[in-house]
Write a structure and sequence with these properties.
single chain; 3 helices; transmembrane helix
């Protein structure tokens, strides 16, 4: 789950850079992991991203 969330974060970050839209969508994976697994796996996801 953490690996998928990191992938989601990086994909959203790439989309943001390509389109030039100033949206900060690279934290969606961290929020998803925090809701499902709790705060410590979310910290691991954030650091890995």
């Amino acid at each position: 789950m953490i690996g998928a969330a990191v992938g989601i974060n990086l994909l959203r970050l790439a989309v943001t850079h390509v389109t030039g839209v100033p949206l900060y969508l690279d934290m969606i994976g961290v929020c998803l992991v925090a809701m499902v697994l709790g705060p410590w796996p979310a910290v691991v996801t954030a650091v890995a991203t």
